[in-house]
Amino acid sequence: MAGPGRRSARERLLETADRLFYREGIHAVGIDRILEESGVAKGSLYYNFDGKDELVREYLMRQHDRWVAAIDARTAAETDPHDRILAVFEALGQIFVEPGFAGCAFHHAGIPQPGSTEELAEKKFRAWLHELFAVPVEQGGYRNPGRLVSQLVQLYDGANIAASAAEPDPTAAEAARATAEVLLAAAKPG
């Protein structure tokens, strides 16, 4: 157990994994490097996690939870479906300018192997992302809801890619928001 002011081995492992996996990629960083940089013994790693797969799963879930919290914080006050959808892109704009932003952790993870930890975590993330748009699209009574949700998800993904490219586009979220507004107007009920 960690004493006052001392982070536990689990916390140090997760913080180190967050930093290294996010910056360098899941497959580029080995367990030995995580152990070295976290200052944690190998026995403590296996006491806290079954191995790298579980550490990767925890990393991806933590990243997912951070994005959900940031987006929920921006969209929670919006009761109008139209405004709630646009607020998602405004939240992305806030995320994109955070120090150290390097893109979506799920995009960094690459194409997951079937049944892998990455695939399971990405499926959870993708379900959340579709639901993020599907609920207000349904509440707003928009025409062609499935198509509209798909278009909004593509805008979200595209903004993430543009904001974290080799030459990042700091206006990616703003451009995605403007495009979303056009899509919403075109799909407006009635």
From TrEMBL:
Q: Which residues bind DNA?
A: 30-49
Q: Which UniProt keywords apply?
A: DNA-binding
Among the Pfam families in the record, one is TetR_N
Task: Name the SUPFAM superfamilies on file.
Answer: Homeodomain-like, Tetracyclin repressor-like, C-terminal domain
Q: In the UniProt record, does the keyword DNA-binding occur?
A: yes
- Which ranges does the record mark as transmembrane? none
* Classification via Gene3D superfamilies: Tetracycline Repressor, domain 2
Which residue numbers delimit the HTH tetR-type domain? 7-67
Q: InterPro entries under this entry?
A: Homeodomain-like_sf (IPR009057), HTH-type_TetR-like_transc_reg (IPR050109), HTH_TetR (IPR001647), Tet_transcr_reg_TetR-rel_C_sf (IPR036271)
Q: Does the keyword DNA-binding apply?
A: yes
- Record PANTHER family: HTH-TYPE TRANSCRIPTIONAL REGULATOR RUTR, HTH-TYPE TRANSCRIPTIONAL REPRESSOR BDCR
Output this protein's name: TetR/AcrR family transcriptional regulator
Species assigned in the record: Cryptosporangium japonicum
